[in-house]
Amino acid sequence: MQFKQIIGQPSIRQSLTETARAERIPHAQLFLGPTGSGNLALALAYAQYILCTDKNETDACGNCSSCKKAQKFIHPDIHFSYPCVGSKVVSTHFLEQWRTAISDNPYQEVNQWLQSIGAENKQGNINKDECLDIIRKLSLKAFEGSHKILLLWLPEYLAKEGNRLLKLIEEPPEDTVFLLVAENQEKILPTILSRCQLVKVPRLSDAEVAEGLRSKGLTEEKKLQEIVYLANGDFNQALQLIDQQQNDNATILLDWLRKCYGGKGIEMHRWVEGIAKIGRESQKHFLQYGLHFMREFLVLKMTGQSMVRLQTSELETAQKMLRIMDFEQVEKITKIMDHCYFAVERNAHPKILFLDASIKINQILKSKITA
Questions:
Q1: Which domain holds residue 275?
Q2: Whether the Cβ atoms of residue 182 and residue 32 lie closer than 8 Å to each other
Q3: Are residues 336 and 364 in the same domain?
Q4: Pairwise CA distance, residues 148 & 139, whole Å
Q5: Do both 229 and 253 map to the same domain?
Q6: Please, are residues 32 and 198 in contact by the beta-carbon 8 Å criterion?
Q7: What is the reported pTM?
Q8: What is the pLDDT of residues 64-108, one digit of tens each?
Q9: What gap in Å lies between CA 130 and CA 161, rounded to an integer?
Q10: Measured between alpha carbons, how far is residue 121 from residues 87, 356, 367 in Å?
Q11: Could you give the CA distance from residue 98 to residue 73 in angstroms, rounded to a whole number?
Q12: Are 98 and 79 in contact (CB under 8 A)?
């Protein structure tokens, strides 16, 4: 991938190319940015730029042998590590799927990736075997490039296994570069953070998202501006919104709130049966969306303005909810969703968890009706 293919982030691109041309490449860098900001795309372009044999001031040439291999993600000196599912699997078991995924969308988020490799009800992780495989790969000499590069996507999934990589990150073999790409700093081991130079990747501006959508062929200005506003700097979300009017998570959430408001046990139980089947990663993704909806609903309630980052059908529902929910209820429901996310991460029984949450939300909503 070349820098010219990346949406926005001009100052970071300039900084990265300057360090490579000056041969001042830090041995470990952490590209930290929100989903859809382009942190993975930047790391991919940087890896190609480092190994390019005919680079210019702003980008890799795209034509040398190294570039051609890097663009197909088959360069023997660029190694990839990413979350997978299973206790004994390593990244190389899913290498073909990975190449396809990042070729199609280098702005992808983790749930898209995990579902593409059949995660279903399993949670992603970077396990002990993967760490040992990383150590083995980097113990070898570079095959044909000037450096060996390990691009590790989402070190948040390392958990305690990341301790196995500490010595290697701190004292890597000669001409070895670690490029870690992360979204949540709080979930990364402090010992890994302290060994990396931080590259903060900001959320994209609305203008940059619009530019990216135009490059994808979206020319209908009204739809483009609506998508830009809803995406809130997340280019992956913008790509998902191009072909859909309302995402599945919005449908599921609004259906849940309606059933909790109605308070009919059989209907709530049927909803719980459905959410329990979608898998833990999808449940976490749904709860993240639920927290986003409640945050935007709170903005709507506080300001009274309709300019919130919700789609039309979501906004209509939120406006109807204004007369039903007060600030205290919003706070309580948000805490329940946050607790559910925490519990899902720790393998809570989904039917028990969501049924309990549904009953509590029903009680919260009823409390105002009966007051």
A1: 248-370
A2: yes
A3: yes
A4: 10
A5: no
A6: yes
A7: 0.79
A8: 999 999 999 999 999 999 999 988 899 999 999 999 999 999 999
A9: 9
A10: 14, 20, 35
A11: 9
A12: no
Residue type, 334: T
DSSP annotation of 232 reads T
Please return the burial class of 357, using the count of CB atoms within 10 Å of its CB with bins 0-12, 13-18 and 19+: buried
The number of domains in the chain is 3
| CA–CA separation, 32 and 197 (whole Å) | 10
Measured between alpha carbons, how far is 193 from 182 in angstroms, rounded to an integer? 11
Q: Residue count of the chain, please give it.
A: 371
Instruction: Give residue 307's region: left, alpha or beta (phi > 0; psi -120 to 50).
Output: beta
Same-domain pairing of 67 and 165: yes
d(CA 330, CA 364): 9
Token pair 């909810």 in the structure block, residue = 321
Q: Hunting for tokens 């700097």 — which residue is that?
A: 233
Q: What are phi and psi of 180, to 5 degrees?
A: -100, 135
Instruction: Give first-to-last CA distance, the chain, whole Å.
Output: 60
Look up residue 83 and give its two tokens: 């979350």
CA distance 191 to 163: 8
Same domain flag for 151 and 219: no
**Cα–Cα distance, 127 to 121 (Å, whole number):** 17
**SS3 of residue 71 by DSSP:** helix
What amino acid is encoded at 294 in this protein? M
Residue-wise pLDDT tens digits, 314-366: 888 888 888 888 999 999 999 999 999 999 988 899 999 999 999 999 999 98
Q: Indicate whether 60 and 180 sit together in one domain.
A: yes
